[in-house]
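tl;dr need the bound structure. longer version: we got a ligand (adenosine-5'-diphosphate) that a collaborator sent over and nobodys looked at where it sits. i said id run it. heres the input, straight from their email, havent touched it
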Amino acid sequence: MTTAPPTHRPAIAVLTSGGDAPGMNAVVRAVVRTAIGAGADVFAVYEGLQGLVDGGQRIERFGWSSVGSVQHRGGTVIGTARSADFRTREGRRRAALHLLERGIDRLVVVGGDGSLTGTDVFRSEWPDLLDELVEAGEVPAEIAARHGHLVIAGVVGSIDNDMVGTDMTVGADTALHRIVDAIDALASTAASHQRSFVVEVMGRHCGYLALMSAIAGGADYVLIPENPPADGWEDEMCERLRAGRAAGRRESIVVVAEGATDRHGNPITSGHVRDVLAERLAEDVRVTILGHVQRGGAPSAYDRWMPTLLGHAAALEVVHAGPDHEPQLIGVRNNRVHRTPLMSAVERTRQIPGLIQAGDYRAAMAARGSSFTDMVEVFDRIAQANDEPSGGARIAVVHGGGLAPGMNTAVRAAVRFGQSRGHTMLGVQGSFLGLVDGRIDELAWGDVDGWVGSGGAELGTRRAMPRMEQYYAVSRALENNEIDALLVVGGHRAYQAVHDMHAERDRYPGFGLPVICLPATIDNNLPGWETTIGADTALNEIVTAVDRLKQSAMASQRAFVVEVMGRYCGYLALMGALSTGAERVYLHEEGVTLADLSDDVARMVASFRAGRRFHLAIRNEAASEGYTTEVMCRLFAEESAGEFDVRPMVLGHLQQGGNPTPFDRVHATRLAAFCVDWLSAQISARTGQWAFVGSDEGRPTAEPIRTMADLVDSALARPREQWWLDLRPVMAALATEPDAR
Ligand code: ADP
């Protein structure tokens, strides 16, 4: 041993290994800070598992500020590598020595299934490796005895989203952003020339990126490994593209996953798809292989807050683990941290290619998560242009409340999905009052082309809702237009209006139809579904704005109070704070007192004196009536002791603008399909129920609208129970250094 014997504090190491993925830095930051807060010594290993083999300066003690300002950076700041040495027993023996030199016997590994497998091999060999090191006189016996077990926790860093045991892998959401941005750009040029594009995306054996980007990018056809197309797929593909053109599409886009095959296991390449299209459609076809662009760039908002939760949980897992600890995969399920035995998750993941080979496509898709199979079917239905609908009902779609990015996506999916079920789909212009005025148009498949990724609301939305004296007019409008069912895509005001109309429904003959509300608001203040359509887009707008702000402010000593929307709901503020690494968040749910502000400013003065250059606080717009953003800034400036200046930044309506993110597009599509199916079933059963979208472990359900009164605090227009409030301890653990708390 070359260095001093370790202390008795737990010592942990964190490393990133295998392919890099955006969001790995957020994991590392959270692991380092959480572990320090929990009283552990923390080391970062540079260059992945190879760094363990090399030792020396590649294993570095990290402090609180070693991970300052890394969350917004792409890739991994501690480097990653593929290591041939670690595949050898000798390499792993050296790795064990280098860990013991520092008293480290707990590891958080962020990587793909290869890295996690390698680490588990290392863990199972650990006692033998220690015996060898003691025998060779390289490690004293008492040191080996003190560190008899290697504790490991894995976090999956992979853009492919290819791991069983977690809904999302770190980096997949960002990759989806890159792909969908590219498809949006290609779609606009393709439309100008009436051209077809074949887009090849990454994913190895996993079709997640291809399927979700096809949905979010409004593609015509997708080829994924889990669902190889039946023989004759070339004809089907060409037929679908022809039908789309006939229905008004100006461009065609086919997305091919890099691992796509036919049912005989023959690879389907993007070049083959191009040749088929060029020959049979006799038009200009271009191939775009996105390649490493998909891995690059700044992480999305989701790839900042979700990896932060995982890193926090992984650090606590290893710091508190006892000697009989079983290795865990720290993943995410329905927005919650979810632990799974590590190797069973890896093994189940590795079985998927076998399921595909055996032709068990359902099982292969099901292994990808509950929504994967649903989304394959939804995509097929909405991508296929329809003939005139027949035999179905008349279903109207209406918006209500504030604007939410993704409203257009939901209408597009509802129209196309509804038509695929034979229904006539109607769009109401100008919200409920437009309904009263009879501003109702039939929407055909081609009418909603291009709506998948456009911000705003083509149908228009308004905050004004019908008053009780207008209910009769609403009822007449529903009857006169022979509307059989109503899909309301909107926010709190729309939900409240539907609830209030439902309470009076027996008095109005037109109210006998089924109605369902689909949650669309940036505020995320609705009961039922946990992340409303539009909230992810708003969060990304916040994160982008704060990234710029940080860059501009780094040159001077400055504190910012950034005011974000959300009404009385602090979701955007808290998630914005977690995603941007803010030092403080002000929520209406917690309130703000003068004592809080005075503590805050004292801490700010101390930290600027100690060399800090930037302080970021995020304030929900309604956090406090008296301590407005302006008042807070004045108070901080007054008490700054000349150490820093203070600036307010009110983000305002840019949070509602912007094109919907892939997440909002995918969820808008999924929920719209669910709502149309539910309405269809209600029409057939003649039930006339009124509902809003709820969730059963992440699967959409329909909840009776009357229950809203119990679930929502109507004065504050927010749910009584808000799941994300449980994330406040993570914010507290990462924002302030323990000594300064
Ligand atoms: P990923 O972690 O992204 O799946 P790889 O499969 O390339 O990437 O694995 C990364 C590293 O993990 C490898 O370079 C190797 O050092 C280590 N590794 C993978 N599998 C094993 C194994 N069975 N035994 C030991 N080390 C392994």
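gonna send this back to them w/ a short note. Confidence is low (pLDDT under 50) at residues 2-6.
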